[in-house]
Amino acid sequence: MKKQLVPSSLLNLDLLENLLKSKSLKDHSDEMIEDLEKLVSQYIVDKSKEIKNKSRIIKNDLEKDQLPAESNLTKEQIKSLPSWVRKDLKNSHLIGTSKKVIQTSDGKKYHLSNPLNSLSGGQWTFFLNSVINTRYPTSGEESYAHHIRKIHPSPKPPQLTRELIEFFTKEGELVFDYFMGVGGTLLGASLSGRKCIGIDLNKQYVESYKEANKYLNLEEQETFVGDSIEILKDKKKLDEIFGDRKVSLILIDPPYGDMMTREKTGEAVKKNGDTSPTPYTNLKSDLGNMELHEFYKVFKESVKNSLSTLKDKGHLVVFIKDLQPKEKELNLLHADLITSLNEIDDLYYLGTKIWADQGVNLYPYGYPYAYVSNQIHQYILIFKKK
């Protein structure tokens, strides 16, 4: 074994050896332990930089003007603070000459003029990374009832939707998902202390959400079974659902045309031994059963109609995945969708985040003849209502 990069005590090599043996990986123990040593060493380096940087910022802040927050804020200002600030209000200070930045005892900062979310400055900055790399588990407690939600061909992880919801809404605000599926958005809203309304064509998916929600012991959100495309055209029905409430965020993962109605290839076949399509429903009105040109038209109309539920300066966030190119067909769905939606009056494109799902297994598409990409990424398109 090569020279250790970190002390043995940090890794507990005996415990690791026993664990690898139990997983029938003992023959690979040297390689795996060396990788772990590198990971731990890099973590120590990165954490050290983080701690030093945080200490430097706190030291700089101590040199600024400071006032006790509790005695220098109005009742209305205190009421509007995020819960994480209110919990530490007695130990928090207004820093700087503007008296608009409140700093808690652990160094986190919140700007009193923030109209968008309840995040600290550091959380805000971290979210602005244009790439999200994840490896969410599909079993155990951290899978958030995936064993129930997996009846859907593409269930969205509640941890991911929670991040998006927390950036584009404040605590207690309302989110809308009119392609809710098995409720990834609704679960994300519950996890972040927001309200959510969900609609789906498939009653089984809605029931699956309710079962998962009960399993997770979360507050059940409002759900409706029906054709959201038609519901969004019906002002009377929308009034029944929303009343005088306005939505701060529309977060949707639409069926991308007839992608799911095509025969399966690659990992799906290897895993299940079945090339059969897995459509969301067998209904003609389902976007997931439409050809692309029809999908673009109907989806654009649905977004246009949904804006009546969205408050001014509210956000629309859309998940989309490209198809593989075919001869001269580029199949850049995300680019076509951006162009299409940006044509809607009062809706403006702000940018894209790329979600790289590292939990997707790779498959040797095209081997040994041609390059065919393993598309482990999806696009998260962000728009804002004027």
Strand content: 15-25%
Q: Please write the string of helix (H) and strand (E) elements.
A: HHHEHHHEEEHEHHEHEHEHHEHHEHEE
Q: Could you name the ranges where pLDDT drops below 50 across 5 or more consecutive residues?
A: none
Largest sheet: 8 strands, mixed
Domain module tally: 3
Q: Give the second-level CATH assignment, the architecture of the largest domain.
A: 3-Layer(aba) Sandwich
By CATH, the superfamily of the largest domain comes out as Vaccinia Virus protein VP39
Spatial order of strands in the largest sheet: 5-11-12-10-9-6-7-8
Terminal residue distance: 61 Å
| Overall SS class | alpha/beta
Total E-strand runs: 12
Q: What is the residue-averaged pLDDT?
A: 89
Named CATH topology of the largest domain: Rossmann fold
CATH top level assignment of the largest domain: Alpha Beta
Tally of DSSP helical segments: 16
The percentage helix is 25-40%
Envelope shape = globular
Rounded to the nearest angstrom, the radius of gyration is 24 Å
What this model shows, in words?
- Helix content is 38%, strand content 17%.
- With 386 residues, the chain is of the alpha/beta class.
- The protein has three domains: 62 residues; 50 residues, no CATH class; 255 residues, Vaccinia Virus protein VP39 (Rossmann fold), CATH 3.40.50.150.
- The strands form two sheets. It has an eight-stranded mixed beta sheet with strand order 5-11-12-10-9-6-7-8, with helices on both faces.
- Helix 9 crosses helix 10.
- The radius of gyration is 24 Å and the shape is globular.
